[in-house]
Amino acid sequence: MDTSVSHQDGLTPSEPASTSSLPVFDKDICAEDMDKMAANAMRASNFLKAISHEGRLMILCHLASGEKSVTELEELLSARQAAVSQQLSRLRLEGLVTPRRDGKTIYYSLTDDRPKQIMEVVYDLFCRQK
């Protein structure tokens, strides 16, 4: 018996909804878990807004494999330096990437594991063949 739920966007979760390990999606969610979500909803919303641009999303995908220079990102994205720098600036402002200067070259890396974890989920949802 198929217990997965079909969504309007055509995506189907890989696991039945009842086996979710996320407390937010558990039918027996407690008040403490809801309070945690409410306290962090703005941070989560800002994080999702920061990655909701195709260019920024692809920058994070490339940085998930390691540090890259602005020039490397330009080539990987087939984009102009001004566009790449603008998107890096937004990601830096949100605390998702960290710059490092070496002479005239600026390198960027992910600040922590959050963007990489999200990129893995995005890849699983949209890129992995089922």
From TrEMBL:
Highest rank taxon of the organism: Bacteria
Database matches in InterPro entries: ArsR-like_HTH, HTH_ArsR_DNA-bd_dom, Metal_resp_trans_reg, WH-like_DNA-bd_sf, WH_DNA-bd_sf
Keyword tRNA-binding in record: no
Segments forming domain HTH arsR-type: 36-130
Region feature (Disordered): 1-22
Keywords attached to this entry: DNA-binding, Transcription, Transcription regulation
GO molecular function, one term: DNA binding
PROSITE patterns: HTH_ARSR_2 (PS50987)
Name listed for the protein in its UniProt record: ArsR family transcriptional regulator
Species assigned in the record: Sulfitobacter mediterraneus
